[in-house]
Amino acid sequence: MARGRDASQARKGAVAALGKGLSRRARSRCELCAGDQDPRVIEVPPTEDEPSEDAAILACLLCRDDLDSKKLGDLGRLRFLETAIWSETPPVQVLAVRLLRRVAESEDWARETLDGLWLDEAMSARVDAS
Ligand SMILES: [Zn+2]
Hints:
Strand order of the largest sheet: 1-2
Number of strands: 2
Bound molecules: zinc ion
Number of domains: 1
Number of helices: 7
Order of helices and strands: HHEEHHHHH
Helix content: 40-55%
Shape: globular
Radius of gyration: 15 Å
Strand content: 5-15%
């Protein structure tokens, strides 16, 4: 088993290797907002030992920024979440719901959208497990 730096390098490589499959699934666009600004593979926690397409999505620069930073960017832009939370791709749905919950702290439309959302037990547990 590789450790430390080696392991993290190996993981990065494995995550990047998902790019091909994800690009096909996502038609090379951001799976959240359908934007095409520098889409890259990101993992969706909780992650398994081996990176997999079921725990990763293709996300554009803007969405990666919103997911990474404490402060959300343009809240109006995030309206795409109204449809993204119904995604049939589980990791996309998970991230969309998590992001929408953050938007709902300040935006009425986001709260209303969340009110109309129904998740089965497994999905709901997965959204909460981060
Ligand atoms: Zn995006």
